Amino acid sequence: MKINKRGGMELTTSTIVVIVIAIILLTLGIVFVKKVMCTAIGGIKEIDDGLKDNIQRLFGESNSKIVMIEESNEIPKNMIYNIAFGIKNEEDKTDTKFSYSLEAIDFKNCGITKSQVESYILTGKEATIDIPAGDTSLDLISLKFPKDAPLCIIKYQLKVNHKKTLYESKIFTVEIKPASMLSSIMC
Questions:
Q1: pLDDT tens for residues 76-134?
Q2: Within-domain flag for 185
Q3: Is 38 in contact with 186 (CB distance < 8 Å)?
Q4: N or C: which terminus of the chain has fewer CB atoms within 10 Å of its end residue's CB?
Q5: What one-character-per-residue DSSP string does 114-130 give?
Q6: How far, in Å, CA of 174 to CA of 144, rounded?
């Protein structure tokens, strides 16, 4: 009696192909979920039309020359977090040069130095910008707290100068939170 072993080999090949396809789909799914989750955790990534509209709405609701999307922030360690702000030129029509600087003003409960606190600022620490009369300028402050940063609350002050004098300032707080298990694994 002759035994045909070819059928057993085809089943094995089909099973291997199905396993390979399943692994590829699982990997793609994990990459997609990671991208979505890390984007959701990380806050604002860029200035888009929705953000511009939101800042314009905030200017309409207040008499302030500086507005921020979030004046109180909870930021997990080891995540880049962006805070959007806008500056409105209500001054001179000829001199449109403004400058801003960001400074840590209250971090006593953190047990670290001012230079350490200010090293957490990735972008938006200072800049010179040109804002036409009656117009607004939008920018982002990027912060990242390392894994060894203490869990505490830091107050930052954004100072805007025009013609080398204080135009307006805005204070915002940042609470450093522990990184969630999900963000520490995936991001």
A1: 888 888 888 999 998 767 778 899 999 999 998 899 999 999 899 998 899 999 998 88
A2: no
A3: yes
A4: N
A5: HHHHHHTEEE-SEEEEE
A6: 11
